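User: I'll paste a sequence; please echo it back and then give the predicted structure.

Assistant: Echoing your sequence first, then the prediction.
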Amino acid sequence: MISSMIKDLLDPSSLPDVTKNVSLVQTHISSVVVGDEFVYKIKKAVNFGFLDFLTLEKRAYYCQQEVKLNRRLAEDIYLDVIPVRFDGRRYSLRSKQGEVVDYAVKMRRIPEDKLMKSLFKKGALTGIHLNKVAQVLAKFHSEAHGSQEIDAYGEPERFRVNTDENFDQVRKYMGITVARKEFQTLEHWTDRFYHNNRKLFLNRIEAGRIRDCHGDLHMEHVCFTEKVSIIDCIEFNERFRYSDPVADIAFLLMDLEYQGGDDFSKLLWNAYKEISQESGVESLLTFYKVYRAFVRGKVNSFQLDDTSMGDEEKEKARDLARRYFELAYSYIA
């Protein structure tokens, strides 16, 4: 069910820029109002534990963080944070009158046909594209902020907070989006990996590899316009962003494999490995691919509990979740 605020903002006269067409894209954490040239992303008042947008103050803060952090890889796309006002009759992003009731991140609209996922589906993705992505990511990871505080997030005990949380939050979806056998096998395998590979995690810290990364690097977030732009990094929780760059690129490699692009995944990984001078991390890469596929299964499962989504949208989310969990299982089966 769409809120009255979102219904009002789907009226072109409520938006600050001239537009003829307005549409809505819903995720488990955002409502995105899409105009002809610009989009306005409004955070939902939700709390998933790892993410808390319940108060207006928190949504304002994380909107500012979203713009600041995403300008690292998409400076020309993230433009501003705009207040949503209510004048007693209707909600607006254009009006200067009324009470501020929410905030929206204003972004330049990205052409859908320029997204990595679109190019792949059209058969237009090439090795040249992948080399450009590898160069951008290797440079970004090498220059991203690092510190003793960030290093701590590379410790196995610290990262285990993420995987333990995943299993705890997905447990209720067993038999719905993930088979019981898959869930239990993945949980056991993850536990054994931590037990057997502690030194591998610590070696990455000693090598200075842990950085302030992107955190949500999949194909719908990579855009090929005049330059490679990468959008939608994690702004709401540092422990998802402070990580090993291998965990970052594992997301994109996993997503390519999910789409059936195993050969493209190998090309991208080999190019990135060469530029960033990575070696001896194949087992760690598998671990992070499992983690990333499980995360995607989880966030799609969350949509089953979203009252603003229709039955058809929920069925699509259920199918996507199942396929991601099956992929995670395939890496270790």
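The CA atoms of residues 30 and 43 lie 4 Å apart. Residues 282-302 form the longest helix (21 residues).
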